[in-house]
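Q: Structure tokens for this one, please.
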Amino acid sequence: MKRIALLALLTLAATVGPAQAMLKPGNAKPAHAPQVFTGAASGIKQTAATLQGSVNPRGLATTYRFDYGKTTTYGLSTPIASAGSGTTAKSVSAQITGLAPGTTYHFRLEATNSAGTTLGKDAHFRTLPRLTIAAKPGRIVFGASTTIRGHLQSETGAGKSIELQANPYPYSGFVTVATTTTDSLGRYAFTGQRPTVITRYRTTTTKAPSATSGTVTVGVRIRLTRTASDTTPAKGQKVTFSGFACPAHVGDLLSLQRHSSTGKWVTVGRTHLVQAAASPTCSNRSSYNVTVAVSKNGTFRTVAAHDADHLAGISARIAIKVH
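A: Here is the predicted structure, written as tokens:
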């Protein structure tokens, strides 16, 4: 009887054992968190860049995002996107905008599936610096000066050498006309610039970080003086308005204008500029004379026509009171 019982037990074990082994959890395929690789940034601009990397979902539905910021605590993230549920690495990317120029940013790739979250290693890049430029005033009278100033927007912008380049009419090319150094905040200024014709300006760094500003144009007006032969004439009396233009612009149109009751300037006389002798303040100047009869009080000015190298010259106003 003992032999029969033992034999029965052995037979049962042989039948049930393999089935139980198949049901053991250890034989089920385990789930894994995604594999992540933080790549490099590309398309780096002053305020934008594209972050890159790769994600292996390892067979489970997986999402990813990039964390980024000015430090390794990040603080900002791209929108969550799907990496699919494949079993091989998939390239992923995201564009970020609104960045500060000339600034270092850290980033990492983060991916999540039902088995967990994986954080990629930290990587970093620096946005391109920005060099701003402005002219004040943007329009000057011949012989006056303007200031060209701006800002090197970069975390390494202090103490950098900046060149001022000018391209005067007829705009044959930029040449360096001055050099200065940025202050502790990256600001610069070129004072006392006296262009003699309409001139385009730009600035550029001489060393890294490499940056070139946009272009600003400074308009130069013809300097125009004026006098009147009589500022208190009798009604209907003729008054001669005269003056000088610098630079000369010989042959160009000169208009005498009166300020109307509607607020507009109305041309009441015309002549042309003629060559005049040089003066201590202008080596090449012209003169004009234009005569009109004045029948009532009014405010007058003279205007020299503009051309390609200068803006129109506009004299100071002069009041005429009829008695």
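A few notes: Residues 2-23 form the longest helix (22 residues). Residues 1-24 have pLDDT under 50 and may be disordered.
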